[in-house]
Fold:
Amino acid sequence: MNGPLSEMLTSVFGAVSDLHALTLGHMVARAAVIYVIGLAVIRLGRNRLLGRNTGFDIVLGIIVGSMLSRGINGAAPPLATLGAVLCLVLLHWGLSSLAFHSGWFDRLLKGRRESLVEDGQVQTETLRRAEISSQDLHEALRLVAQIDDPGQVRHAYIERNGRISVVPRLRDEPRVFEVAVRDGVQTVRVELA
Structure:
């Protein structure tokens, strides 16, 4: 494409074939155009990328950021960069839609929450698998629910996005303890109100 339009685009955005000749003005023009078009393409993702909900969303954010920067600094042609970003966002949108309609695919793609505390009892095996120390759990209980004692927690989960959520025990909710004594003695159930 040779002509007045091609010459004007080259003067504003720089030549695709001569990346070392890009000036500050070329980079600024590329940055502005790629930012506006990139933001429009990201909005097609319907806020999933912006919400950074799961690893599934974070990976897309990293790849898209890397690709857009290559279009700005001249390491890749701007039009091809925007096309590839559009393709990734549409793929992400399609996989998100499939995950919405299929529970097993949703769990495969985004994982599932796991219980850290159940009725005041710390689930040590889950802590080990999630590589969460006891100190990390206590810190999360304090930060999320202002609780220092796991015994005051009805449920605590590590959510699919890696955050810890806490459902505190109600103040008037009874606490149940089961005490087992060996050598033929039955289990005793104690309920404290």
About this structure: The chain has a mean pLDDT of 81.
